[in-house]
């Protein structure tokens, strides 16, 4: 990615993080360090293609898994 970046001004740098599909874009964006504010200028349909799986992932992270799923996967809660 470093070879594809350029300075916009003293406080902004532009990187190309896209690829052949939304998965490449998502992977590239995952390398942006925590705490760094960023924006994207993805055009449609790539923007929607990226948004949909991200929404599904967020819903999955926010949902409480059923107890049976934890037991099957061997992830029992720690005892206190």
What do you see in this structure?
This protein is an alpha+beta fold and about 80 residues long. The protein contains three helices and two strands; from the N terminus they run ββααα. It has helices at about 20-30, 45-60, 65-70; strands at about 5-10, 10-15. A two-stranded antiparallel ribbon has the order 1-2. A hairpin with a 2-residue loop joins strand 1 (about 5-10) and strand 2. Helix 1 crosses helix 2 (about 45-60). The longest helix has 17 residues, at about 45-60. It is elongated, with a radius of gyration of 18 Å. The chain starts with a strand and ends in an 8-residue tail after the last helix. The mean pLDDT is about 80.
- Secondary structure class reads alpha+beta
Major sheet: arrangement of strands: 1-2
In terms of DSSP E residues, the strand content is 5-15%
The SSE order reads EEHHH
Shape: elongated
Poorly predicted tracts of residues: none
The radius of gyration computed from the alpha-carbon positions, rounded to a whole number of angstroms, is 18 Å
Count every helix, treating DSSP H or I runs of 4 or more residues as helices.
Answer: 3
Overall helicity: 40-55%
> For the terminal residues, how far apart are their CA atoms?
45 Å
Number of strands: 2
Mean of residue pLDDT? 80
Biggest beta sheet attributes: 2 strands, antiparallel
Characterize this entry briefly.
The protein is α+β, with helices and mostly antiparallel strands. It is 40% helix and 11% strand. It has helices at residues 22-30, 46-62, 67-72; strands at 5-9, 12-15.
């Amino acid at each position: 990615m470093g070879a594809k970046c350029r300075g916009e001004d003293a406080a902004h740098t532009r990187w190309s993080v896209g690829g052949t599909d939304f998965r490449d874009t998502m992977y590239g964006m995952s390398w942006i360090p925590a705490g760094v504010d960023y924006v994207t200028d993805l055009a449609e349909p790539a923007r929607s293609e990226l948004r949909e799986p991200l929404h599904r992932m967020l819903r999955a992270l926010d949902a409480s898994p059923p107890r049976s799923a934890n037991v099957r996967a061997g992830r029992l809660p720690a005892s206190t």
